[in-house]
């Protein structure tokens, strides 16, 4: 079983869409990521009637990684709804998640994001964020 299959299986465990309350819906998008040291962390999307409280699966997984291990570098990431990424933009993190990952560590520019499970096609985060505004701040730090 390769790393992408491992990540898929771990994320799939989190997939069980449910209404938590009349205001909150969860577990309809899931994510698994591999941290720098090889550990796998998961997360699921949670949305509420007030959009500012929504959390994407990718950010939840990254926050779980940081909270549980103190790590900030993500080597690989898979995110999906009811089936693994199948190309055509499926599996892509939203802009807020891309931004959060880059702000978490400059090394996350190299994060491999799975965009097609069957073909094992990936894209690096850096390719999704051309001309990112934060590089100058990292250079000054």
Itemize the secondary structure elements and their pairings.
Layout: H1 3-12, E1 18-21, E2 24-35, E3 40-48, H2 57-69, E4 74-80, H3 95-104, E5 112-116, E6 121-124, H4 125-128, H5 135-140
Parallel strand pairs: 4-5
Antiparallel strand pairs: 1-2, 2-3, 2-4, 5-6
Note down, in words, how this protein is organized.
With 141 residues, this protein is of the alpha+beta class. The chain has five helices and six strands; from the N terminus they run αβββαβαββαα. It has helices at 3-12, 57-69, 95-104, 125-128, 135-140; strands at residues 18-21, 24-35, 40-48, 74-80, 112-116, 121-124. Strands 1, 2, 3, 4, 5 and 6 form a six-stranded mixed sheet that branches. It is globular. The model has no long low-confidence stretch (mean pLDDT 97).
Structure, briefly:
With 141 residues, the protein is of the alpha+beta class. The chain contains 5 helices and 6 strands.
Shape: globular
Overall mean pLDDT: 97
> How far from one another are the termini?
40 Å
Number of helices: 5
The helix content is 25-40%
Quaternary form: single chain
Low-confidence segments, given as residue ranges, are none
Number of strands: 6
Largest pleated sheet: 6 strands, mixed
Strand content: 25-35%
Succession of helices and strands: HEEEHEHEEHH
Rg of Cα set: 15 Å
How does the helix and strand content classify structurally? Answer: alpha+beta
Q: What tags apply to this protein structure?
A:
alpha+beta; about 30% helix; about 30% strand
